[in-house]
Design goal:
The complex is a heterodimer of chains A (about 120) and B (about 150). Chain A has about 120 residues and is mainly alpha-helical. A two-stranded antiparallel ribbon of chain A has the order 1-2. Chain A is elongated and about 60 Å long. Chain A starts with 11 loop residues before the first strand and ends with a helix. Chain B is about 75% helix and about 5% strand. Chain B is built from seven helices and two strands; from the N terminus they run H-H-H-H-H-E-E-H-H. In chain B, a hairpin with a 2-residue loop joins strand 1 and strand 2. The radius of gyration of chain B is 22 Å and the shape is elongated. Classes of the chains: A mainly alpha (about 120), B mainly alpha (about 150). The interface between A and B is medium-sized, with 28 and 25 residues.
C-alpha cells in the first residue's frame, strides 16, 4: 500500500506531483531568460523599432532554436498552470474534463501555429 | 465530548473545497492578491494566446504583414477601432508583467524557504503589485502615444 503522508509519501505518478511542479519551474526559468534576451535586444536600440530590427532579432539560427524551445516550454508551462486552475475551481468533474480537453486542443493548436510562424521565416 | 466543545467546533468555518463563488468571500491580503493575480494574468494570456500568436505572425512575417499589424492598432480591425485593440494589448502588457515579476517572486520563495515569512510575503507582494502597475502605466503611456 502506498504511503500518502510523511517523508516517504508518494509524490510521483502518472501526470501528478513532483514532475509537473518541477517542469513548471524549469520552463518558467526558460521563458524568463528568453523574455530578458528579447527585451535586451529592444532596450539598447536608439530610434523607432521597425520591421527590419524586429524581424532581425529572430533571424539567426540560434535565436530560432531558442524560440522553438520557448514555444514548447510554453506548451508545458501553460498546461500545468491551467490544469491547476481547473482542478482548484472547476468542481463538476465532467465539466473539468471538458475544460482539460479544450485546454489541450487550444494549446496544441496554438503551439503548431507558433512553430509554423517561426520556421517559415 | 461536552456540548460546548461540539458547538464551538460547529461554528468554525471550513474550507474543504475552494470553488469559484467562495473566492469572492475571501479576505485578500496582499500576498494572496499577488498570488491570485498571478493566476488571473496567466489565464488571460491563455485565452488570448491566439491573439498573441497573431501579433507574432503579422509583426514578423513580412514588411506588408508588419503594416497590417500596425494598422490594427492605429486604424482598427474586425470592426473594432484601434484604441480597443490597444486596450487589449495593454491588458496583455499588465498580465505579462505581473506574471513575470510575481513569477520571479515565487521562484525565489521556492528556492529560499529560509526567507519566507509573513512580512516577507506581504512586502514583496506589495513590491510586485506596485512595480507591475508602474511599468504598465509607463508602457501604456507609450502605447497610447503620450510620449
Amino acid at each position: 500500500m502506498s504511503v500518502n503522508y510523511g517523508s516517504h509519501r508518494t509524490v510521483v505518478g502518472a501526470h501528478y506531483g513532483m514532475r509537473d511542479w518541477l517542469s513548471q519551474r524549469v520552463t518558467a526559468v526558460i521563458l524568463a531568460l528568453f523574455t530578458l534576451v528579447v527585451i535586451g535586444h529592444l532596450i539598447f536600440v536608439k530610434g523607432p523599432i521597425g520591421y527590419e530590427l524586429w524581424a532581425g532579432i529572430f533571424a539567426t539560427q540560434w535565436m530560432k532554436v531558442l524560440t522553438f524551445v520557448v514555444i514548447v516550454s510554453m506548451l508545458v508551462h501553460v498546461w500545468v498552470g491551467m490544469r491547476n486552475i481547473f482542478m482548484d475551481y472547476v468542481k463538476p468533474y465532467a465539466f473539468r474534463f471538458v475544460m482539460h480537453v479544450f485546454a489541450i486542443v487550444w494549446l496544441v493548436g496554438c503551439t503548431g501555429w507558433a512553430i509554423q510562424v517561426l520556421w517559415r521565416l | 465530548m461536552s456540548e460546548s466543545a461540539a458547538s464551538t467546533a460547529k461554528k468554525r468555518p471550513e474550507f474543504r473545497n475552494i470553488d469559484f463563488p467562495s473566492l469572492l468571500g475571501y479576505r485578500w491580503p496582499l500576498a494572496s492578491l499577488a498570488s491570485g493575480m498571478h493566476r488571473v494574468s496567466g489565464a488571460i494570456m491563455f485565452f488570448l494566446m491566439p491573439f498573441i500568436i497573431w501579433m507574432f505572425d503579422t509583426s514578423i512575417s513580412s514588411e506588408i504583414s508588419f503594416l497590417k499589424f500596425k494598422a490594427a492598432f492605429n486604424v482598427g480591425m474586425l470592426g473594432l477601432p484601434g484604441f480597443m485593440w490597444k486596450l487589449v494589448a495593454l491588458g496583455l502588457i499588465w498580465a505579462a508583467l505581473h506574471h513575470f515579476i510575481a513569477g520571479l517572486r515565487h521562484l525565489w520563495m521556492d528556492t529560499h524557504h529560509e526567507h519566507v515569512t509573513k512580512d516577507f510575503g506581504r512586502q514583496t507582494a506589495a513590491i510586485v503589485i506596485a512595480l507591475t502597475l508602474t511599468l504598465t502605466a509607463v508602457l501604456g503611456a507609450k502605447l497610447f502615444g503620450l510620449y
